[in-house]
Amino acid sequence: MGVIEIEGMEFYAYHGHFAEEQIVGNRFIVDLTLSTDFSKAAKSDDLADALNYLAAYQIVQEEMLIKSHLLENVAERILSKLYGEFGTIEKAKVKISKLNPPMGGQIRKVSVTMER
After folding, report:
1. Cβ pair 68, 15 in contact under 8 A
2. Which among 67, 93, 98, 109 is annotated as catalytic?
3. How many structural domains comprise the chain?
4. Is 98 designated active site?
5. CATH code, 69
6. What predicted TM-score, i.e. pTM, was given to this entire model?
7. DSSP string, 12-29
8. How does pLDDT run across 2-49, given as a tens digit for each residue?
């Protein structure tokens, strides 16, 4: 087994409970960890035998474009899409961070982490 980590994916998106968040938007950072069997790809040196992390990035990108009130909803959609696309995933974890959330104080970020 091996681990693929795609870290620091940055998106501008429109997720949030407050109407202003869905209009103005905010910056988000997404980190993704995927555990999968590397043995076939390690021997063949062929992308067809590997979990294509460009395709994984594109799934995250597509899901970040869909407005949601809760980051938990975005995380669940990302994990569901990844498991649907890649049958070789043994474990996956996604962390979504909203930068400078509008919470009435100086807060660098708030994050939601979900794994399956």
Report:
1. yes
2. 98
3. 1
4. yes
5. 3.30.1130.10
6. 0.94
7. EE---SSHHHHHH-EEEE
8. 999 999 999 999 999 988 888 999 999 999 999 999 999 999 999 999
| Higher pLDDT, residue 53 or 103 | 53
Question: Residue 45 in 3-state DSSP?
Answer: coil
What Å distances lie between residue 90 and 1, 28, 36, 54, 115, CA to CA?
A: 9, 26, 5, 18, 11
Contact 30, 9 (CB under 8 A): yes
For 1-116, strand residue ranges (E) read 2-13, 26-36, 89-99, 109-115
Q: CB of 69 within 8 A of CB of 106?
A: no
Domain of residue 16 covers 2-115
Distance set, CA 19 to CA 35, 96, 102 (Å): 37, 20, 12
